[in-house]
Amino acid sequence: MRTSRYGAGKLALELLLVIFASLTLYPIFLILINSVKTYPEVMKSLVSMPNEPTLENFSKVWVLMNYPRAFLNSLLVTVSSVIGVLLASSAAAYRLVRSPGKISRFIFYFVLSSLVIPFQIIMVPALKVAKDFHLVNTLHGLVFMYWGFWFLALCSCITAL
Prior knowledge:
Structural class: mainly alpha
Radius of gyration: 25 Å
Number of strands: 0
């Protein structure tokens, strides 16, 4: 029977993990305590505990940001983007896999090689094209852009399976 020993190595590893967890959770803690402070309290000290916790900030943000509309917009864009990309890339990947040959292999490697191009290089030309087609600042324009950006990546992932 094997007995596990709790030595100095395990203790050091656990201490290191506790330190990393604390460093990761500290900003979240600051956000939480500052969200229930009043504005003067936040300006006075970011790291102090609130004198009188209040939930008024949440109601202000709900109204000023028009949160229900923002949530609906996010939901519409997310659902339509995911469904569109999944349908289109699944169909394309199915065709590439089911028809083996030089052309399918060429298309697969072409799609795969396009993923090497960093997004920062594509970003400005894509914005110019979107502006020319009047897709800037519209929900359907954002959905179309997501379809274009994620189609090739998902198509190559599905084909590789």
